[in-house]
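Student: I would love a firmer grasp of how sequence relates to backbone shape in proteins. Thank you; the sequence and its tokens follow:
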Amino acid sequence: MPFVAQVAVGRRPHVSVFGNDYNTPDGTGVRDYLHVMDLADGHVAALRYMDEDNSKAGGVGKLSVFNLGTGTGYSVLDMVAAMGKACGKEIPYVLAPKRPGDVTIYMADPTKAKESMGWEAKRNLDDMCNDLWNWQTNNPNGYGATN
């Protein structure tokens, strides 16, 4: 998503979309995009879960692994279109060859996170793009850069 925002703000000429012949509705890879604030909330939930678990276990916690995600997949072109909607202009892209190791669909199953920690993502793709566009327009050269 950062590259798409950089195209929207004019720092890059286009987005490269790697592969358009996947077995998906539009031929591009499908990903489970997660808002950074949902990710942060998930980490806080995990810390609370660990603290609770450690208290119950006499200070000795157990290892738990959770998938944090929305459980909803969006294609790369869905994400490019959502960013275009957020910034109010079409995002130029070029189709490029698939990269080694890229998979057709890459999504999380957040069921365990919801059942065990009470965590679930609250934001959708439009929220992510709107917030990213807001951040990018206020920081066109990136975080910490002199704008």
Remarks:
- The CA atoms of residues 135 and 144 lie 12 Å apart.
- Residues 36-56 form the longest helix (21 residues).
